[in-house]
Design brief:
Largest sheet: 7 strands, mixed
CATH superfamily: Thiamin diphosphate (ThDP)-binding fold, Pyr/PP domains
Distance between the termini: 51 Å
Strand order of the largest sheet: 2-1-3-4-6-5-7
Bound molecules: thiamine diphosphate
Helix content: 25-40%
Number of strands: 7
Strand content: 15-25%
């Protein structure tokens, strides 16, 4: 019988703990598939964040290391410099990367560390119960912005991909989304490119992936996908912001 689908070797055979409709699981699968297809699973070291994906070290079928909240790019820097022939990636949420860890990601990009970052932007702090993140949209309700985010008090949502693309050392910067099958395929391509650039020694690469948090958004899984498409994509446009060919 022809095999039409196979679970990726890139993920351990452990059920995810994620909420129904959360897209962390899809993004994990894409990373696992890419590492398997590139034949680098045995050479890869991932750095897990603090946040809902804190247990990523259990799920990915490669070597994993845990980092303190936001510090994954610094930990990945150390690992990559000691083991330059290994593939090194960080997997981080928006609270982790765009808030407490802003300095780490900016400077890892600035130094053009030859690492890959998978940045999961669900516009909220998921694990801790739905507090406002720097990426929370204007008017979006969170436990710390119960009347909706007010830009007079908290500024405008931070566009990480655009910001990092201004840094000379950021070689590959792309924003993708996993709200439907077509975009899931595009996200996989972006993740593959990011790792290919690392393998080619091109320096810092990052894929921002727009993601859902039905539990903290107070929506059903299906409503969350629609909300992402209608609200997040207009503010966080998808596409490529930088390729190594553009870096002088
Ligand atoms: C130093 C430190 N500060 C704060 C926390 C509390 N904390 C745990 S997870 C988290 C936010 C995670 O949100 P995000 O990175 O967006 O990931 P998500 O859970 O949404 O996937 C915070 C603030 C912590 N664990 N350590």
């Amino acid at each position: 019988m022809a095999v039409v689908f196979k679970r990726t070797e890139g993920l351990a055979e452990i059920p995810f703990h994620y909420c129904p409709g959360c897209t962390h699981g899809i993004i994990h699968r894409l990373v696992g598939e890419v590492l398997e297809e590139l034949g680098v699973l045995g050479d890869t070291i991932g750095v897990a964040p603090v946040g809902c994906s804190v247990l990523a070290y259990d799920y990915f079928n490669c070597d994993m290391h845990e980092a303190a909240h936001g510090r994954a790019p610094a930990v990945a820097t150390g690992i990559k410099r000691v083991h330059p022939n290994n593939v090194v990636f960080t997997y981080q949420g928006d609270g982790d990367l765009a808030s407490i860890g802003t300095a780490e990601i900016v400077h890892a990009a600035h130094r053009s560390e030859n690492i890959t970052t998978i940045f999961v932007n669900n516009a909220i702090y998921g694990m801790t119960g739905g507090q406002m993140a720097p990426t929370t949209l204007i008017g979006q309700k969170a436990t710390t912005s119960p009347y909706g985010r007010d830009p007079k008090l908290t500024g405008q949502p931070l566009r990480i991909a655009e910001m990092l693309a201004t840094i000379p050392g950021a070689s590959y910067v792309e924003r993708a989304s996993v709200h439907n099958p077509a975009n899931i395929r595009k996200t996989k391509k972006a993740i593959k490119k990011a790792f290919e650039y690392q393998l080619a020694g091109k320096g810092f690469s990052i894929v921002e992936v727009l993601s859902t948090c039905p539990t903290n958004w107070g929506l059903s899984p299906a409503e969350s996908l629609k909300w992402l498409e209608e609200n997040m994509i207009p503010y966080y446009p998808l596409g490529n912001f930088r390729t190594p060919e553009e870096v002088k």
